[in-house]
Amino acid sequence: MPDAYILGxxxxxxxxxxxxxxxxxxxxxxxxxxxxATHQPYGGVVPELASREHLRAIAPVVRKAxxxxxxxxxxVDALAVTQGPGLAGALLVGIxxxxxxxxxxxxxxxxVNHLEGHIHAVLLEERQKGNPEFNFPVLALVVSGGHxxxxxxxxxxxxxxxxxxxxxxxxxxxxxDKVAKLLGLGYPGxxxxxxxxxxxxxxxVSFGTPQIKHRDRNERGIPSSEGPRFDFSYxxxxxxxxxxxxxxxxxxxxxxxRQKIAALSNPTLEDYLAGCDKETLxxxxxxxxxxxxxxxxxxxxxxxxxxxxxxxxxxxxxxNQELRQRFEQAAAMExxxxxxxxxxxxxxxxAMIAAAAYPKxxxxxxxxxxxxxxxxxxxK
Length: 380
Ligand code: KG4
Ligand code: ZN
Description:
Layout: E1 5-10, E2 15-22, E3 26-34, H1 36-39, H2 47-68, E4 78-84, H3 88-105, E5 109-113, H4 114-128, E6 138-143, E7 148-154, E8 160-166, H5 172-182, H6 189-197, H7 235-247, H8 251-263, H9 269-274, H10 278-305, E9 310-314, H11 321-333, E10 338-339, H12 343-346, H13 351-362
Parallel strand pairs: 1-4, 4-5, 6-9, 9-10
Antiparallel strand pairs: 1-2, 2-3, 6-7, 7-8
Helix pairs in contact: 2-3, 4-13, 5-6, 5-7, 6-10, 10-11
């Protein structure tokens, strides 16, 4: 089989990204244009602004990905684009652009599920390191700003997935972002909380995360014939942090910190540390500990229940240092191999989209030109 160069395009949320990946195993270029600066003043992603920024960035980002890869529009073998899940308007920018390009160039176009992209980021990472083989079944925790899902993954001609856990309310990354916003730490919250937590005592405040009953039922409470479920819930912990702030009268310090951080164009760890007293650092570290413990405990419980051979942890929150350490320790005790993408491949990127497209390219599973964005697309 000759090498196949796939141009991947990703625009599901607040990153406009394009990449060229060779045969699903080698990143040739990987360009990510982050819109964080645009959304930062609002403390979260503003959908209309995201679409506008994608429109501005998409053509130069794709051109740069081709130039970095020393490829041309004509030389790539196929195009791949994220179909969903994500923001409808944001997805449409990438899809319209990819469709027009595929039509003009007469190249095949592959529609990719963003969550499958995150799972294939792990495979891409390992293939690049020369580890192409995994033992199945694989259990994948996809944990990001929009998602907290557990999938059993099977490899066939194309991959297939069974969802055995999801969040009932907030995604884990969303909880990181909301708690950071609440504490005046800016946006996005995950990376800041990650770095600050190392400076606090994680056993100071005890936060519980709900253990969902009826684990053998689906999200509508209907008994599941497909085996036990391992669902998550993170809206309560955010409220618990708010209660702590109120009962410990932290509001004035938070307002001061928010103003100081907002005045800095690119705050450093030292700037954040200077704005946080010990009580805040302990609170942040305790919050992160509770999140990490819950993600690790539920994932490993699911791994035991389904007797999986391998665990993948992927998505923006998989960049978290404590999450990686705790997963590695806990999985090692159970003799279970656990794999993460490198940090740049954990957060949104288009290399993972081009990698996930490769098995579909081999199977000639191409998208019809009338396919459209699916904001709530599920993974099967
Ligand atoms: O995968 P991603 O880039 O976009 C989505 O598909 O949602 O994930 C972004 C999310 C944000 O919520 C961000 O706060 C979180 O991932 N995140 C982290 C870290 N880096 C990014 N959360 C915890 N620790 C981190 N180091
Ligand atoms: Zn994502």
